[in-house]
Amino acid sequence: MKNLFGSDTIENSVDDSLRPLADRLRPNKLEDIIGQKELIGDNKPLNNLLKSKPLPSIILWGPPGVGKTTIAKLLAKTADGDVIETSAVFTNTAELRKIFKTAHEHWKSGQSTTLFVDEIHRFNKTQQDGFLPYLEEGSIRLIGSTTENPSFELNPALLSRVRVLILQRLSFAELEEMIIRSEDYFGCPLPLTKNARDWLVENSDGDGRNLLNRIEQIMVHQSNKEMDVDSLHELFSSHRGNAYDKSREWHYNLISALHKSVRGSDPDASLYWLARMLDAGEDPHYLARRITRMAIEDIGLADPDALSISLRAWQTYERLGSPEGELVLAEALIYLALAPKSNASYSAYKMALSDARKSGSLSPPKHILNAPTQLMKETGYGKGYQYDHDHPLGFSGQNYFPETMKPAHYYHPVERGFERTLTKRLQYFKNLRQKLSQHTK
User: Fold this and answer.
1) What φ, ψ does residue 3 adopt, rounded to 5°?
2) What is the secondary structure of 104-155 as a DSSP string?
3) In this structure, are residues 267 and 337 in contact, taking their beta carbons and an 8 Å threshold?
4) What pLDDT, on a 0 to 100 scale, did the predictor assign at position 145?
5) N or C: which end of the chain has fewer CB within 10 A?
């Protein structure tokens, strides 16, 4: 495989001892890859793709350290014609044009080019559009890898021309398998206690590269005695940051998990996702706003106190600040998770909004229009309006919808919490309206 500049890739030219352990242990066969059982194996997507002639363009999407680059390299080796490896981090538009031009010339002479692009999401939209004519004519076969959601980072036109394969984080068992493979490579067990070994796996966050880098450091610093958890804390940072970004997929994934946990009345899961987001550096003001939204959307009038508690929690956080203020957000979240749930008012508003958009500019009935001028009075504005407070029961039963529109019924309270009381009130006014209607007849 050639890199962007036409020379052999690094792993073929650098002394083995100078390469990181993760690179030295990189599998040479698809079946040797640890993890990704949904993709690798008999009749699984990757094995089937290897049988395809020609190999289709592919995007490998997954978190760091799960085998994207390894799989891409193995796929590229099976391709016919030229194979070029590059990274979107280091490749500019002029270099891309050079690759495209060379590939097109080779294509005209009957030779295809496979282009492996690491971190392909780093290319801007214009650069991504540059791939389209060459993918369309078949002069380039693209194999890209990315840690970012292609739905957000890649142009729809480019996505429509590739197949996206999703790679998963490595499980604890798969990371343990990676430890065993590294022990076979070194010819000795890792000098770790059982608890330290477990800590090493748990704190790798499903990232095989991170695990192997730490193993390499352990072997460099090994002493005559086994290392315990405290020793690992000293050797590494005791806290590994969770995968998170405050504007992309993980942000939306975690807030979705938080919201649905509250909706599902699970206070423990709600607290877990709140802690995950706060620990990753999410803005507590954003979380306070979303908690308030949950009170409106998912609890509504089943528990009117939920909104007041959410707003007070938001205000309290603003006065206390971090880290003390996070506790009041947690308390509000617990209350919301355990509160009776209803989306009746939310659904009612959406139905009313839909009707409002369909009905256009229908005028209110004249009897509920104000008549500040004599002309308006003469044309019937306000005529026949019944002042509800003048009625013995404080209810006139008049129609308040446009005259040409059939009165609608949007709000359907649930039999939970305070909305049970509202159901009775609705029925009361419905019965009273019927009685008044019969009386006027």
Assistant:
1) -90, -175
2) HHHHHTT--EEEEEETGGGS-HHHHHTTHHHHHHTSEEEEEEESS-HHHHS-
3) yes
4) 93
5) C
pLDDT of residue 149: 87
CB-based contacts of 278, cutoff 8 Å, min separation 6: 284, 287, 326
Query: Do residues 3 and 86 make contact, with C-beta atoms less than 8 angstroms apart?
Result: yes
Query: 170: which DSSP letter?
Result: P
User: Which two three-digit tokens encode residue 332?
Assistant: 């509000």
On the question of pLDDT at 8 being above 50, the answer is no
Q: Which residues contact 159 (CB under 8 A, 6 or more apart)?
A: 59, 150, 151
State the DSSP string of 141-154. EEEEEESS-HHHHS
Tokens 């405050």 label which residue? 246
pLDDT of residue 7: 42
> Which 3 state secondary structure label does DSSP give 81?
coil
> Phi/psi at 8 (nearest 5 deg)?
-60, 150
Radius of gyration of the chain (CA): 32
Task: Decide: helix, strand or coil at residue 86.
Answer: strand
Considering only CA atoms, which of 349, 432, 423, 352 is closest in space to residue 392? 432
Q: Are 65 and 210 in contact (CB under 8 A)?
A: yes
> pLDDT digit string (tens) for 55-80?
889 999 998 999 999 998 888 887 77
Band (10; pLDDT cuts 50, 70, 90) = very low
The model's pLDDT over 205-241, given as tens digits with 9 standing for 90+, comes to: 889 999 999 999 898 876 678 888 888 888 886 555 5
Average pLDDT over every residue of 184-198: 92
Q: What are the Cα distances from residue 121, in Å, to 74, 128, 245, 288, 365?
A: 21, 9, 15, 32, 57
The helix (run of H) or strand (run of E) holding residue 165 is strand 163-166
